[in-house]
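Researcher: Checking consistency across runs. Here is Trafficking protein particle complex subunit 13 again:
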Amino acid sequence: MNSYHCVQNNNDVYLEAQIQNTCAVPMILEKVILDPSEYYTCSEIKPPETANSHGSYCSPKYLNPKDVRQYLYCLTPKTGEHTLNYYRGVTSIGKLDMFWRTSMGERGRLQTSQLQRMAPGYGDLRLTVEKVPATVKLHQNFQMICKLHNCSERPLDLSLTLDNTLQPSMIFCCTSGLNLGQLLPNNVLDFTLELLPTQAGLQNISGLRVTDTFLRRTYEHDEIAQVFVT
């Protein structure tokens, strides 16, 4: 394997692996499997097959010397067995198993050691933006949908406060100090915000403050999204 790269998206982990033929002869990759660790389920993301000029389909598994093939996998945490808080300490995501055959009929196999990801840096409460327009009109309201994830092992009683002073070119047009209710461990909560842009150009969205009313702990969420105002 030439290299690999991990990206965290919401709770899923996307793994991109690059496999290069370093032999002096062509080879056929018979099988490339990601064996996930016990904490994840895995699915391979495959591109659609494309036909060549002769109408037949090209096999992406045939590698000439120095050729590189990319593989993409999505790993989803088994949240039914563990809380999201547990996954903050999990860095091992699985092993990549490769089987090949050279043009001379010689077979080979290589299994990597445990592949690692960077541990996420969020705390007990995580906010993600589920939907926001890329482009909006000046002085016209638009909506943004957010999601809160309880990554702790206890219920959170939450309230939402909006601070307009941190984004002078964007105004919140919804209620501040809203009681969001109780969010149970390993659960999510959706809410919608309405905003009014007052200045053209690329604008950041900041100023969301979510408070755990029991511990009186406030989670600050700034620059959570960008919109282009025309």
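Researcher: Does this match what you'd expect to see?
Model: One thing to look at in this run: Helices lie at 84-87.
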